[in-house]
């Protein structure tokens, strides 16, 4: 696997490539909050041969640039903003059509990509999707991890609090401390804490507008093969949300895998198998 930085709309995004590198059918793997491309690192080697795998860090996460707070598009941390930058990344890489997989809030990012340019996204995978597309609008799972008091906390205490809450989303929390170190590294110090809170504000406020909810609707999206992957012990996915996704995506296949919310880390073989089934389905 190799990684590089690409300028996208005035900000550098980091991504790493796997599989067949410059050839083969493209597969885009998108992480959610507050993780990074590291989430997929154990899945990529298990993707069936012949696929070009692209795994980016979204703006403000992992090795990608921090947002330039207060500077327009380089600050946009909304789902729509992330989706637009990924579309530009695909342009730079010369990728016209892609199978897209999104984890957690990353599932909303790939859904927004579908809504923006439905013909560019072929097959779709929603992995531990924290998306509620009911008529009441989109409610972020971030709300379950944070609260308004976090903004007044010292940065070190803020990270410690978030780390404890993220650990509860694993089926076996003690085994994943190194992953949390990777994810929280960009949010150290006062500037990092400001970036973290900017992410939270973007993901909990701007996405609940009528425009965002309409944009993420499945009703106008073309039917496409879709895999929905759930962790058996994921506390963020409710049975009602599961049923709703199945109803709104009649061409979907559902895969239950071991582990909690971070299935690509805890069950990489099973997640890769689900992706393989999607990629090779007729």
Explain what this protein looks like in three dimensions.
With 282 residues, this protein is α/β, with parallel strands linked by helices. The chain has a single domain, classed as Rossmann fold, CATH 3.40.50. It is 35% helix and 19% strand. The chain has an 8-stranded mixed sheet, with helices on both faces. About 9% of the residues have low confidence.
In terms of topology, how is this protein built?
Blueprint: E1 2-8, E2 11-19, E3 25-30, E4 51-56, H1 79-93, E5 98-103, H2 106-116, E6 121-127, H3 142-145, H4 155-167, H5 177-184, H6 189-204, H7 210-215, E7 226-231, H8 239-248, E8 252-257, H9 263-266, H10 268-280
Parallel strand pairs: 3-4, 3-5, 5-6, 6-7, 7-8
Antiparallel strand pairs: 1-2, 2-4
Helix pairs in contact: 1-2, 4-6
Q: State the total count of DSSP E strands.
A: 8
| Most strands sheet | 8 strands, mixed
CATH class term: Alpha Beta
What's the arrangement of strands in the largest beta sheet? 1-2-4-3-5-6-7-8
Q: What structural class do helix, strand and pairing data support?
A: alpha/beta
Number of domains: 1
List unreliable stretches of 5+ residues.
Answer: 133-146, 206-217
Quaternary status:
single chain
Strand content: 15-25%
Total helical elements: 10
What's the name of the CATH homologous superfamily? Alpha/Beta hydrolase fold, catalytic domain
CATH topology: Rossmann fold
- Provide the helix percentage: 25-40%
Q: Averaged pLDDT, please?
A: 82
């Amino acid at each position: 696997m190799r990684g590089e930085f690409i300028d996208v709309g005035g900000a550098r995004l980091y991504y790493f490539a796997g599989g067949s590198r410059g050839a083969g059918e493209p597969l885009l793997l998108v992480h959610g909050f507050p993780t990074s491309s590291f989430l997929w690192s154990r899945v990529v080697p298990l993707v069936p041969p012949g696929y070009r795998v692209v795994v980016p860090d979204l703006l403000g996460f992992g090795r990608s640039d921090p947002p330039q707070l207060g500077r327009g598009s380089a600050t946009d941390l909304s789902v729509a903003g992330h989706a637009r930058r990924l579309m530009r990344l695909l342009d730079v890489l010369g990728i016209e059509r892609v199978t897209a997989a999104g984890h957690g809030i990353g599932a909303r990012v790939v859904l927004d990509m579908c809504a923006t340019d439905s013909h560019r996204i072929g097959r779709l995978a929603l992995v531990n999707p924290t998306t509620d597309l009911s008529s009441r609008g989109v409610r972020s799972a971030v709300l379950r991890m944070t609260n308004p008091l976090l903004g007044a906390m010292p940065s070190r205490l803020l990270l410690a609090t978030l780390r404890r809450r993220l650990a509860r989303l694993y089926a076996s929390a003690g085994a994943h401390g190194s992953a949390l170190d990777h994810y929280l590294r960009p949010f150290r110090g006062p500037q990092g804490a400001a970036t973290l809170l900017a992410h939270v504000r973007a993901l909990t406020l701007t996405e609940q507008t009528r425009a965002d909810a309409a944009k993420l609707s499945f009703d106008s999206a073309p039917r496409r093969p879709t895999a929905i992957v759930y962790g058996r012990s994921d506390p963020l996915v409710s049975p009602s949300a599961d049923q709703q996704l199945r109803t709104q995506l009649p061409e979907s296949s559902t895969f239950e895998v071991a582990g909690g919310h971070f299935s690509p880390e805890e069950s990489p073989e099973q997640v890769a198998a689900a992706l393989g089934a999607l990629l090779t389905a007729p």
